[in-house]
Amino acid sequence: xxxxxxxxxxxxxxPNIFPPDPAKDVGYLFPGLAERLTRGxxxxxxxxxxxxxxxxxxILCSGYSGDGDREWNTAARxxxxxxxxxxxxxxxREGIKSVRLVEDLARDGHVLIRVLGLQTRLYYNDAALYPxxxxxxxxxxPVGLNVGFPGPQVPSKYQDPLPIDDVAEFFPELxxxxxxxxxxxxxxxxxxxxxxxxxxxxxxxIAPKHxxxxxxxxxxxxxxxxxMWASDYPLLTHERCLREAxxxxxxxxxxxxxxxxxxxxHFFFGS
Length: 271
Known about the structure:
The protein has helices spanning 22-26, 33-39, 43-53, 69-79, 96-107, 117-120, 130-139, 164-170, 186-195, 213-220, 238-245, 253-269; strands at 9-13, 57-62, 84-89, 112-115, 143-146, 176-179, 199-202, 227-228. It is an alpha/beta fold. Helix 5 packs parallel to helix 7. The protein starts with 8 loop residues before the first strand and ends with a helix.
């Protein structure tokens, strides 16, 4: 069992604000989620849970959780600036409004722009997304793209990672992180990372004990700097994720440290 390093980063935490009946949509995948949502989690409770599990910093996500989630996240970041950074889900179907939103998010210190195929029902190489990609390059922001079958019972085809091959070619400067694991297209995700140096991988919404073995192998070999942990809290708890992560077959403590801390720290903050 590995030891948790200092500076553990959770690359995806949701605020205590959700759309109607989220447990109904994805509760079949996450035991205990309904109870966690019914209980609710205050900002102070979230910080306490992070402390108890050994999480130093979290990337809060707004734009999909519900009304007021951006304000909740900004208040959390302002109160605990050493503990939280911000990301936001942008909807490219809103055209120039979405591009101007990216500019506003950059001014507010957001460190990641996320786009969800399950929401937009657009492939990632759709022309509607290209202005967002260009603006992110201009502003130095990475883009997080959900890949793989989504938990909500909506069509999965829009989260096929293969269209990202076109994006990486057209925007070689764009930093991309593949979110939510990519199943059943995990091998495609890994091939994309092997091919394109600016693509990384985030394990959000996947319990570590269920991580595909191809991902662990990649993180132990040529992808040691490209795979980062995320919980998608409250879908998964920090305690469970890090307890299971310590038992994963990483090659060394150094490889484990990169997975739970150093890779996200470098990706989001450059250090």
